[in-house]
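Collaboration report, partner site 2.

Our partner group contributed sequences for two proteins of shared interest, and the home lab folded both. The records are reproduced in the order in which they were received, starting with the first partner submission.
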Amino acid sequence: MGLGRRNLLALLSLSGLVGCQWPTDSADSHSGLNSIIRVEGGQAMRGSIAEPAEGSPAEAKLFPKNLTIFPGVANKIIKGTVGPDTNSVALGVAGDSAYWLVPALSPDATDAHSFTFNAGLSVSPSLAKSPLLVLNADGTSTLPLSVRAVDPEGNFGKASIYSLIMDAQTLTGSLVVSLDWDAPVDLDLHVLVPADNDLGYVEVWSKARSANPKTGDGNLDFDSNSNCQIDGRNLEAVVWTGAPPVGSYVVRVGLASLCGQPSAAWHATVSSPAGILGEASGVLTEAATRQNPAPGAGLTVIQFDYSP
């Protein structure tokens, strides 16, 4: 049964009551509060997205820049189109306690009969334990996101399925320098790597992500929570798969922004197949943001020598 035009428009006129914090307990297990995903700018609807019968020829398409997600990722930008002559879309995971209706009100520049939508996807921190995850033969896990057009009468189109890949955050290499933290803030890992140049080192960080661009080794894997676009990963690492340069290394922790948080506890580790080469922990507060993110920024936390 469709939602009906009046009910559908009433729902889409409401402000999205979507936050980025999942409660640890709720008396209403069928509300959007406990769904595995939330959609900023959408309206929660109880029940699985697979339940509404197909009653419309309209289709929805999603155009994600990448399909990687992490437990706790917040407001991952997703965009797409619906049509023909359809101005809303439903997003959800089959079997979840709720799905989300999102308005698609901007005409598509390439198709006069289609409309575009833009929303922020957030994923529960408990994703890794969710039975909705699909375990693949290659050992990866994916979350099947269903996207369905909803016509003006409230009839649903068929589902398009997009497999969102969960990053297991497994770090392996001949040398790994990692930084993780406990709050939704923008920290930056800086690693000074020995090099044959005037400075005697190259600095690897979010604006210069490779120690050796020619070989592509000694790379920063991810710029987590960049510009306070919270991805939930809270982890950055510089990883070598080949032979790291011999010499002295410096590890620094920079704080680009607390993103509204009072502080962030961090932990840095240097490891190789032989074991832990260095380790440090600490807490950064607002005072640490007084130095703008730049080469050489941050607090020196580990110094170590590497030799094979």
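Second partner submission, folded after the first:
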Amino acid sequence: MLIKLGLNDPAKQVPPTAAAVQADELEDALRELVSTVSSASDSAPVPVPETAGIALETPNTVVPEGVTDTIAYWITNFGRSPVEATRSLHDLFVREPQLTAEVLVSRFEAADCGAATAVVASLLSRNTGAFEKLCDPALSLESAISVAQSLATQEPRFDAHFAKNLLVDEEITEEALERGLKILEQLPGCARLIPILIQFLRSPNSRIRSRAALTLGRIAPASNLTNRLMQDADDRVRANFVEGLWKSPANHVDLFRQALGDRHHRVAGNALIGLHLAGETRTLIQHLVTMARNPEAPFRAAAAWVMGKTGDERFRTVLHGLMRDPDSRVRRGALIALRRIKSAQSVAPPVSAPPQKESILASKNELGA
């Protein structure tokens, strides 16, 4: 299924849910950002070093014809004629955008662009072929994120170009779009892209909406948007938004406490992890004991999951009780939690050390959708 956002045709837009962001509140900000990126792409020249270098005037100099060989030639000889090399690399993008992007992304990933690094970064930032390459599952997500972060360092507008492509590409697949959002959330300074990220909350695809919510949680948006996300009808959106707040430097204890009363077990479980990371031990223990007695099995399983994530041996007694739960999911969760606590205690730091926040953040969320 493809996402048709229809910026200029409201009749074709996906109707937002009652709690979704209304298009008329965001259209102006979105148009301004997209217009700025488009203008920058059209008007800003590809940077060329101030030193023009020496032109390649040797009569016997022959530039190879193949894309790969031509790129290698101009990168090797960039310092001798930056202007000519830049023009030639640009022409390659015009003639063979896909192959040129693939070769240059590989070279950029390997830090094999030499003096042409800044020019290559600028060309890749403006080219849809490079965008498609980064969103292609054939390139590992780790490599794609690394390349994107490096490009953002070299080209300040890269994140805006990337976000614009995600938004306006009508042929992008759901898999590629979700991958693109994962890349985007790892880029520095993506808070200024909130107007674009909000648009993905209107996607008909729950995975896209929840991924956008996770990214927005890490950005920690304004309170009005936070309230709307916490009232979203989609359980995954609310759960991912709360999870995103784990990494936010701001204090969200009040929001975590509010989320404890959510109707979905994963939202409440993620809120408990947030309280744990915020050092709210007393509140954490009180609510975990209560959740472990919840009449609904998913909540009891969530309680076991949180206990295991904390690595706190004080939960052993409660977990041993959950091992006798009539629901197999709860029993399995309790067993896994006990194993994790045992493992955490075997390598535990001194008692005075703070909770191991990163180990929890790195763990896969196992509460389920």
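Feedback sent to the partner group on the second submission included the following. Residues 1-31, 36-43, 48-60, 356-366 have pLDDT under 50 and may be disordered. Residues 328-346 form the longest helix (19 residues).
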